[in-house]
Amino acid sequence: KNIKYVSTKYFDVIYSEASKESAAELVQQADAILEDICADLGIAPGVGESRMPVVISPATDLFNAYYTNYTYNHIVLYDAVPEDDMAVNNNTIVETFKHELTHAVTINMRNGFWKGVDSFFGDVVNWGDYVVMPSLIKEGASVAYESKTGMGRLHDEYYLQQVKQAKIERVFPSWADVTGATDVYPSGNTAYGFGGPFTEWLQKTYGMERYARYWYNAVNMKALTFATSFKKAFGVSLDTAWKLFEASVSVPDVASDPLTEDGISDFFM
Q: What pairs with residue 5 in β-bridges?
C-alpha cells in the first residue's frame, strides 16, 4: 500500500514510505552512477529504450539485492541491515545499486542485431549473457566497479584474504574452478572472491578499452566461449592471464605448513 515512485532521467525508483530516505539518497546519485559506468566502458548511457525500474523494498530483514532481465530489465534492493561483508560501504543502498547496475550495463552491451531481437522478444532474450559469460566474469565486473571510489569489497582485507590464503597454502585454483560456486577448498561463492580481484587486475594491466571490447564481443557472441573472446580481446589466453594474476597476488613469505617451522608446534600433538 502507498507505493510511490520518483523518475530520474534513466530510472523509475519505486518505494514505500518505510524506504523514503533510501530512495532519496539513490535518486540523487543514480543517473550519475550510470553515466560513470558507461563512460568507463566507452558506451552511450542507458539500459534499454526506456527508464529502468528500481524497486526498494523493506519487506525482508535479510539484506540482499539483484538485477534481472526476467522478463524485463529491473533492479530490486532489499532495504535492511547489511551483512558483515558489506560493512565496508558507507551507504549500502547506493553502493549495492552500483554493483547491480554494473550487471545491467555489461550484459546489455549488445549490437544492433541483438537489440532488434530484444525489442521484439523482450529483455530476457540475451543469449550472450546466459550462454557465454560465467559468474566469475559477471560478478568480477560488479565487485570491481563497486570498489572504484574507495568503498566496496576490494578495500576489505578480510574479503581479499580468500585469494591470499589460497596462494599461501599453494592451493590457488584454476580459473575453471572458480567460475561459480564450489564445494572444495577454497570454498563458497568464489566467483566473487576471485572474480573481483581478477577483474581489477585485468583492468589495470590491459586497460578499460580492451576490457570493454571483451564484454562487447562476448555478449554479442562473436565467439562461442568466454575464453575464446578473452584471447581475442586481450591477446593472451585466459590460462596465461590467470597465472600472471596469481603471480601478482602479494602474500607474506611463509611456509605452506607453519607447523614445520622451528619453534612452532601443535598443542594437540
A: 14
Write the DSSP string, 112-152.
Answer: HHHHHHHHHH-TT--HIIIII--HHHHHHHHHHHHTTTS-S
Backbone angles phi, psi at 12, to 5 degrees: -110, 110
Q: CA–CA separation, 9 vs 25, rounded Å?
A: 15
pLDDT digits (tens, 9 = 90+) for 136-186: 999 999 999 999 988 888 988 888 999 999 999 999 999 999 987 667 777
- DSSP characters over 186-235: S-B-HHHHHHHHHHHHHHHHH-HHHHHHHHHHHHTTSSSSHHHHHHHHHS
What whole-number distance in Å separates Cα of residue 22 and Cα of residue 123?
27
164, with CB counted inside 10 A (0-12, 13-18, 19+), is middle
Alpha-carbon distance of 87 to 103, in angstroms, equals: 21
- Measured between alpha carbons, how far is 119 from 117 in angstroms, rounded to an integer? 6
The pTM (predicted TM-score) of the whole model is 0.87
DSSP conformational letter for 262: T
Say what the alpha-carbon torsion angle 80, 81, 86, 90 is, to the nearest 10 degrees: 100
Distance CA 89, CA 97 (A): 12
Eight-class DSSP state of 169? T
Cell numbers representing residue 213 in the block:
571490447
Q: pLDDT tens across 216-251, in order?
A: 988 888 877 888 889 999 999 999 999 999 999 998
Say how far apart CA 50 and CA 53 lie, in whole Å. 9
